[in-house]
Sequence to fold (157 residues):
Amino acid sequence: MFNQVISKLQAWLPAPAAHAHCDGPCGVYDPSSARIAAEAVVNMTKKLMDLEVPAPGDKAAQIAYNNTFSRYVAIKEEQAQIAKDELLILWTDYFKPQHLDQYPDLHDTFWKAAKLCSACKVEVNPQHTQELMEAIQKIHNMFWATKSRDISWYTAS
Fold:
């Protein structure tokens, strides 16, 4: 019965078809969300590297350590995936064939950045987090140059 009512409403009040040349309207893309996620990966990696392993036999300290370690790892991996998703959206939805003329290394840059996101998920490696930030900065510069704008790269202190 409910489906019949919905069908009649749709027949009486049809929704207009929507057409777009990309998934989102122009102006919604921005590499800053990838940068913010990557900064979280950097910070969680630093925190993991700084964690002190408790003395053997201190069960309460071991439990607290394991809890903190697992939480930092979960956040690091989640944020690395967010950075990767944001980069892939920019790569596949924003950048167009004409951008390859301006940036012939565009595909390689994005591919390597996505691989770095994966490496940051798999490892606790400060070097890879730094390389990821550098790759995202390069993408940031490419992105804003395609809009003929120079938006300063933000670096967290």
The two ends are 61 Å apart (CA to CA). The chain has one domain: 28-146.
